[in-house]
Write a structure and sequence with these properties.
Layout lengths: L2 H10 L4 E4 L6 H9 L5 E4 L3 H15 L3 E6 L3 H12 L8 E6 L10 H16 L4 E4 L5 H15 L4 E6 L20 H11 L5 E4 L3 H14 L5 E3 L7 H11 L5 E6 H6 L2 H9 L4 E7 L2 E2 L5 E2 L7 H8 L3 E5 L2 H10 L7 E6 L15 H10 L3
Parallel strand pairs: 1-2, 1-3, 3-4, 4-6, 5-6, 7-8, 7-9, 9-10, 10-14, 13-14
Antiparallel strand pairs: 11-12
Helix pairs in contact: 3-4, 7-8
Length: about 375
Amino acid sequence: MKADELLNKIEGMGIKVIAGVPDSTLKQFCDGLQTYKGGLEHYVTANEGAAVGLAVGTFLASGRPACVYMQNSGIGNIVNPLASLANDDVYGIPMLFITGWRGEPGTKDEPQHVFQGKITCKMFETLDVPYAVVDKDTLPAQWDEILNRAKTYLDRNLQFAIIVKKGTFEPDREFVWQNGNTLNREMVLGRLLQIIPRKAYIVSTTGKISRELYEQSNAQFGNHDNIFMTVGGMGHASMIAFGVAKERRDRTIFCIDGDGAALMHMGAFAFIASQAPENFYHIVINNQAHESVGAMPTGCQSVNFAEVAKAAGYAYTERITDEAGLKRLEKEIVDIKGPALYEIMVSLDSRKDLGRPKETAKQNRDVFMKNFK
């Protein structure tokens, strides 16, 4: 199935709004969303729960269901609005879910997807959402049968989910977007490792940021012992880092975050600022896209995280856009009391041969914790 074909069929079901968070399993579908010429309104939301909220509002105002797309890791973010608002026992709000199936049992995937993959179908069952599973062998007639079945549920103000296996969508027109930033992310991360004191500790966000830090730290120092790589739980790295900083006030703690992750749970900014940990340094690497899962713009490209953090109450904030800013950061970072936030604007470039951590998540945990003893 090509993305355009499915999007056309979705529009034919009376759906005019589609919202969600990009996923690598759905890359061709997400690319298609950016180039689709039909009448769908598309929104990339800060998190999947917000997309459900948007779908609720769409139905209340128009009487039409909306479509919500996401990786299966996003099911956790939709549980509350789906169970406490959209479910038939509450308001009864129809919506169609398109869900990428990472960690499908029997397939090789990254550690953060293994358990989520095992429980994907069970979660929809628990949430009382009927579903169908599709893959590259699903025939057009079977697609039509699934969508017709889905419409019968939507017409009754219920929800329906389509769980999408890897390789389901045919490659078509790849969406390519550039943000105009000049600093290269991996170069910036390598420089940060030189700037950050070796006795400091780093909590890094999920995706390519952790992968690049892993390779850069191993190349520069022969290890990555002071880095906790938050391979899952998108948006929670800053609170993990805060928890570390509060427990170990004698250590300097850095959170290296991404813009998409920071958007997902931005309330952490206000909480961290209110707690005022002087040993906490927050670095947001901002490429204005969900680059690790296909480089779709975040939908919030104009957000200035340095200004957001300043308004929230961080002691110091700064936005860095060029080499001069990096040099300034190198001179000042050890002299500034936290909580401080540096937003660094970077391009969308990344290496095709970028590797992945060889150690297990638990091995990363154990080495990181051992350093505090």
